[in-house]
Give the backbone structure.
Amino acid sequence: MKPVVLILCTGNSCRSHMAEGILRAAAGDLVEVHSAGSRPAGYVHPNAIQVLREIGIDISAHTSKHMNDFLHRQVTTVITVCGHADAACPMFPGQVNRHHWGFDDPAHASGTAAEILAEFRRVRDEIARVFRAYAAGLREAPRG
C-alpha cells in the first residue's frame, strides 16, 4: 500500500487541486495523493482545470472534499498550501509528516480575464516547482 499524501487548503477549489494533480503526475507511482479543504467551496475552479490542462494534467474529474472525510484514513503526510488550512488542520491517524507551503490564492485575482488567467498560471508554476522538487526527493529517499 502506498503512503497517503493529503494536500489541504481552505476552499479546496484551486491550489490544493493543482498541487494534487502535479504531485500525482510526478510521483503517483510512489504515493497516493488526495486534496481536501477545511471549508470546501464545492467545486474545482475552471481556471485551475484550464491551466493544468495546458501542462498536460487533467483534473476535470476532481471534486471538492472536506478534510474530515480523511480522518478515518491512514494519512502519512499532510501538506497545507494556505495559512487558514494550516491553522485548522487536525492530526490525522498515522500522520508522520506535516509541511506548510503557502501559495497566493489565484481565485482572489482581479483584472481582465487574461490577467486573472496569468495569475493562475503564475501560481501553477510556483506549485509545480515546489511539488516536483518534493516528488524528486521522494524518488531519492531510501524505501523500506
